C-alpha cells in the first residue's frame, strides 16, 4: 500500500447497471450528465486543460477497468462501470465487481476501532502497550517520553518509520501480524518502530495502522475480518465487502484482476495483503458509497453504526495536511465544502472516495490499474463540476 495525498492533488488542481438496492435515475437529464462526464475528463493537475474522453484517458494510462458510484441527497443516485475486470477472461466490470480498496480500507476499519472505544474495550489516549497482548511496541527514548496511543495510530502522529506495504505474490508465504511488525521472515518489510517523538509530527504510516489492527484483535479475540464485519460492514449494508486475505476462491470470479503500469495483468492476478486495516479490504464502489451515506447519517445523529459524538470526532480535522486528519480518515475543505475520504494504492489497484460531511453528497471511483489514481481523480473532478458541488471544481 502507498498512501495517496489525493485531496491535496485535487485541491491543486461499460454499461450502467444499478443493483436492486440502488436508487436508479434514468431520466434524460441524467443520461446527458453522464455523457458530459464521459467526454470531459481533465487531469487533476491541469483542470483547465483540454478535455479528453474517459475511454481515451483510460487507454492512454493503460487502466483496464473503472467502477463509479455517486451519492446525491443521501442515497446512491447512480453507478456506472467501464472496461474489463479480466481482459483475458473477457469479463467486464459490473457494479458487483470487487476491487482491492488499498488504504481506503483504513477509514472503514477505523470506524470499527472507534466502536470498540464506545464500548470501553479500547482507549483513544492510553499507552497501546497496556492493551496489546501478542506483541508489544519496543520502547525507546522517544516512547519513554511520550507513549503511543490509539489516537496517534489513527491520525498518523505516532512517529513510525514504515509508510506502506508491497503485498505478497501468489504462492508466497504470508506472515502473521506480529511478524510484520517485527520485520522478520516471511515478512517482506522492515520492523515498525518509532523514529519521531510521538505526537509531534504528522507522518503517514501503514505500520502504525497495522498496530491498530493487532490492538483490535488482541482486545476482542476475534478475527479482524469477523470483527469489522460485525461492527461496520453489516450495519452499513456493505454486503459485497470483506477483509478476508487471501481472497477466498469462492469470490475470485467477482474480483477485478490487477494490472501494472503497462496494462499487463499481475502474476497470480492480485497480491495478498495481510495488513488488513491498512490495505486488505475487497469492496465495490456501491459499498463504499453506502459507507459514505452511513457516516453522513451518523454525523447527523441518525445511524445505529456509531454515535453522533463519535462520528463528529472522527470527522473533525486534526493534524496533517489539507487541512488535517480525522480519526482514521482524511479531511479536506471547510464549511459546506468540508469533506472526508481516502485514496488508496495497492499493486494493480488505485481508487479514491470522497464524501461531503453535510448535504448528502459523495463520489467513489475504483480502478484496477497502477495508473488509475489519475483517472479516479479526474473523474471525481468532472462529476463534482457537473453537480457544482462546493470545494471540488465548483462554480461557487
Explain the overall architecture.
This protein has 396 residues and is of the alpha+beta class. The protein has 2 domains: 6-101 and 248-387, DD-peptidase/beta-lactamase superfamily (Beta-lactamase); 110-220, no CATH class. 31% of the residues lie in helices and 13% in strands. It contains 13 helices and 10 strands. It has helices spanning 6-11, 28-39, 54-61, 105-118, 141-145, 150-155, 177-182, 206-220, 224-233, 276-279, 285-299, 308-314, 372-387, and strands at 65-72, 75-86, 91-92, 99-100, 282-283, 324-325, 330-332, 339-346, 349-356, 362-367. Strands 3-2-1-10-9-8-7-6 form an 8-stranded antiparallel β-sheet, with helices on both faces. Helix 3 (54-61) runs antiparallel to helix 13 (372-387), helix 4 (105-118) packs across helix 9 and helix 11 packs across helix 12 (308-314). The relative contact order is 0.20.
Task: Write a brief structural summary.
The protein has 396 residues and is of the alpha+beta class.
Average of pLDDT:
92
N-to-C span: 35 Å
Unreliable segments (pLDDT under 50, ≥5 consecutive)? 1-25
In DSSP terms (H or I, runs of 4 or more residues), the helix count works out at 13
Rg value: 20 Å
**In CATH's first tier, which class of the largest domain applies?**
Alpha Beta
Give the CATH superfamily of the largest domain: DD-peptidase/beta-lactamase superfamily
Number of strands: 10
CATH fold name of the largest domain: Beta-lactamase
